[in-house]
Amino acid sequence: MSPSSTRPGRAWLEERAERLIEMVNDRGMTMTDQAAHQLLTERVQAVAERMRVGVRQAQTYLTDEALAGVVDSMIDTLADEAPGAELATEPRTATLTVGTLGRLLAGLAEVNRPGSDGDLV
After folding, report:
1. How far is 36 from 106, CA to CA, in rounded Å?
2. Helix residue spans in the chain (DSSP H)
3. CA 76 to CA 74: how far, in whole Å?
């Protein structure tokens, strides 16, 4: 199989990337051309492999409706991560083992001791 038969066509990829970026922008987020191309290429290859069809056939499954689902999933994932949130108001959900907590406190105490310039050796 030649390399071109395992990757989406350039014209299709440009058109779908433009549409994907537009959908992401409509939801108040941004996406680069490179990220859109990579995402679409990976999706097409995954669909082709999973459905055991060629890349061209797989491209037909990435309709506007399918892209909207991908965008919704991405936005939901990012919203769950809460980028840009005020961390002081977020609930503290991190867990530490006793050993890790001890090393953390020892490190903070070492940096804070009088005469310490905070440099790590």
Report:
1. 45
2. 10-26, 33-51, 55-59, 64-81, 98-112
3. 5
Among 55, 16, 51, smallest CA distance to 36 is for 16
pLDDT tens string 9-65: 889 999 999 999 999 999 888 899 999 999 999 999 999 999 999 999 999 998 999
CA distance 85 to 12: 37
Give the pair of three-digit tokens for residue 58. Answer: 């797989």
**Placement of tokens 């970026």 in the chain:** 21
pTM: 0.60
Cβ neighbours of 99 (radius 10 Å): 8
